[in-house]
Amino acid sequence: MARPEDCYRCGGPTCGYVYDPDRGDKRGKIPQGTPFSDLPDDWKCPVCGAGKKSFCCSAESNPSG
């Protein structure tokens, strides 16, 4: 799995999907190694359909310490 600061968590109320650039998104035809910032603006969460703007950095949503 990629570093937490490279992963983005869906903010959908019941979702919790995490976009991991090391995995990409097969359903959305996003190849492995694609950073979140390079996803198309119309990309949607493969689980709940939320837009890209609904995602936040995993490192920010789950601080360690």
TrEMBL record:
One GO MF term attached to the UniProt entry: electron transfer activity
Record flagged with keyword Translocase: no
Electron transport among keywords: yes
A single GO BP: alkane catabolic process
Pfam family, one: Rubredoxin
Keywords of the record: Electron transport, Iron, Metal-binding, Transport
Descriptive protein name: Rubredoxin
Source species: Desulfosoma caldarium
Lineage: Bacteria, Pseudomonadati, Thermodesulfobacteriota, Syntrophobacteria, Syntrophobacterales
